Amino acid sequence: MFNMGTWWGHENDMAKLTDQLIKNLEAPATGYLITYDDEISGFGIRVTAAGARSFILRYRLNRIARKYTIGTYGRDQWTLAAARKRAGELRKMLARGEDPLANRTDARNAPTVADLCKRFDEDHLSRKRDSTAVEYRSMIKQYILPALKSLKVADVTYSDVDALHRKITKQGNAYRANRVVAVLSVMFNLALDKWKMRPIAEGNPTKGIERNPESKRKRYLSTEELDKLSAALAEHTDHAAANVVRLLLLTGARKGEVLAMRWSHFDESEGTQAGVNLETGVWVKLASSTKQKAYHSVPLSAPARQLLSELHEAAGEGAEYVFPGRGVEHRVNVKKDWAALCEAADIKSARLHDLRHTYASVLASAGLSLPVIGALLGHSQPQTTARYSHLFDDPLRDATERAGAVITGGKSADVIPMRRGK
Questions:
Q1: How far apart, in whole angstroms, are the C-alpha atoms of residue 233 and residue 242?
Q2: Do 95 and 183 belong together in one domain?
Q3: Secondary structure string (H, E, C) spanning 366-416
Q4: What's the confidence (pLDDT) of residue 158?
Q5: What is the pLDDT of residue 329?
Q6: Is there a contact between 49 and 28 (Cβ–Cβ < 8 Å)?
Q7: 297 with 341, same domain?
Q8: Number of domains in the chain
Q9: Which regions of the chain are under pLDDT 50?
Q10: 9 with 76, same domain?
Q11: Which range marks the domain in which residue 276 is found?
Q12: Is 360 domain-assigned?
């Protein structure tokens, strides 16, 4: 009935494979039994001693005998018809000189999204600002890896990314969902163009994802909120954190720029502590410390110079950073302190970055132009500063009221600003 195969298995004579025949095949006492189809060469059904039934294709390539397992009968949609079709496709590959097992090995060894994230961290984030790297790593750990890590980079589709975007959005994190897609977009662009981890023909799976609508924040602290914040800063137990917030208010700088501030930024010579010169009132931000990666020299107000003078006097000999860290070169975060300050001052929905907006609002209220505001904030593009144009509403209203009074001959129309919430 059967021909002896290897010592661990046997081979039946060829037969027309049918579902009934496959179901009636008896399991061997040991090893396995293969029954071949009489239509497609090498195509057969393998039955193990445990009764498992799998479709296989045996073939020779370069005189080497090989066996390709197509799939388990009755599982993962592997019907007899589907397996026979797959066997036909594999035979066509062989006719073209391709090795199905080699292709399967290549696919098995293809990089996954987890591999892509690892390379992105090592080769891309290592050259980014610390704050950017921390933010990206947080999104990768919290959202990207849990959802996509096991997928091959070449197999990720628009639907996979869209599903992740929708899931994060439904969790109430609409803006965060957009940021995650933005990170994935950068990752897949690198995978396509630079790292060759995904075929060009597959394209970037983030392309066409409909982002959640976003509106630019226009939050800045009112005079009343600034008074309350000043009182809270005076009572805050972490004096270094309080001084970070004070400098953010006094300079309009970004958080990362203040936290990484060095005493050498105020010295035009050697950069040593002995050469620190606060009298010039100029803060020289090196290109490596700014968002635009550009040199930025900004004048400091008298209160800012006074605060820095006090901090410099209290600094230890040879101190490099204005706000040294514990176990790290400089302090990297004041998030918890800001939350505590807002609670103490009863300030709602304000971010640290809104202190930058507040600084811009004060400049606008003083009648300074957008180019001047942009220069002080370190903007490289005029359109970046244009987002603060709404801050001119109050000065413009004041001006038009004065003009109206002159034209009509009425009394002076000085505008009395009203505190918010009153």
A1: 5
A2: no
A3: CCCCHHHHHHHHCCCCHHHHHHHHHHHHHHHHHHHHHHHHHHHCCCCCCCC
A4: 94
A5: 86
A6: yes
A7: yes
A8: 3
A9: 1-8, 269-275, 290, 292, 412-422
A10: yes
A11: 223-350
A12: no
